[in-house]
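[Solved] Which block belongs to which protein?

Original post:
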Amino acid sequence: MTVVVAPDRADPAAGPAIFLAGGISGVADWQSAAIDHLGTAWPVIYNPRRPDFPMHDPAEGARQIRWEFDHLARAAAILFWFSVETVQPIVLYELGRWANSGKPLAVGADPAYPRRFDVVEQLALARPGLVVHSDLPSTCAAANVLVSERS
C-alpha cells in the first residue's frame, strides 16, 4: 500500500486508489486511523492531510484545493468521514458533487455529527441504499468491499 499525502502525486500505474474525504482542519487525525483500518486492501490511498500545512500561505491553499479536486476525480472510490468536531462545509460540498456521480462511495458520520441527519436524508435521495455508517471502522470496511467489487 502506498499513501500519497498532499501535495505529492501518485504513480498512475500503482493501482486503484481511494481518497480520504473529510475534515482536516479543526478535527482529530481520523485519516491515520482510517489508513490502519483500510490495511492493504487498497493499493493506493490519497490523504489530503499534510503534516505541516502553511495556513498563512494563500498559494498553498490554492495548491491544496487543486490537489484535492484532481485526486477526488482520479480516485477509484471515495471514503467520506464526518467527524463530530466541526460541520465541514467543503466536505459536504464534495459529498454532494460525488453523490451525483457514478463513483463508488463509502460514507460515515459520527452519531453526534451536527449535520448527520442531512447527510443521511440527502444520500437516501441521491443514492438509495447507500448506508451511512456510524463509526470509522465500519466505514472503512465498506470501503474495502468497494475495492473487491472492482475485480
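(Second protein starts here: sequence line, then its C-alpha cells.)
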Amino acid sequence: MQNLFQKSAFLFLVCSLLSFKSLAQQESTPLVCVNDKENVVSSAMEGEWFSQQEGYTINFKKDTTILEQIPTKYQDFLKDKVIYSAGYITIKSETKVFTENKPYILTVLSGNPHILWFRERDGDPLGDSESFNVFIAIGETTIDDLLYVGGDFNNQPFLRFTRVKK
C-alpha cells in the first residue's frame, strides 16, 4: 500500500511539473505577425496619409521586430489575437507631433481592424497604449486609396485620410 502511495505521489509530481512547464512556455510565447495579402488594411496601410478635415498626417512603417519589445502586461490581451501588421506609427499636424515612431500592432477587435500603439508613461517607453479602429477603401490606383480612422469604439466618427505616398 505504501509503495502504491509513493508511485501515485511521484506520478502526481511529474504531471504537476509538466503542467507548470507547459504553462510557462505558453506565457513566454513570442508574438507573431501573420502576413495575409488578402487583409486589405495590412496590405495597403504602409505609407503616409493626410486628413484634410483635421490637417493630420499619419505614417505607418512596417517592422515586425517591434513585437519583441511589447511588454508582457499586454500579452494576455494579445495572446488570442491575430497580428496582421506591426511597425512604427507617427501622427502629427503642421504644428504638433502627437506621436513619433511609436510601435503599433494591427489586429482585430470585435470584427473591426484595430490599431494598438504604445507610448511612454512614467519613464517606461511602452508603458501605455492607445488604440483606434481603422478601415481602408482601395482606389483604382494606390494614390486613390482612402484610410478611415475612428475611435476606440464603434460609436465614434471616422476621419478620412488620402494617401500622400506609399
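Accepted answer:
You had them paired correctly. Confirming on the second one: The helical segments are 2-27, 40-44, 75-78.
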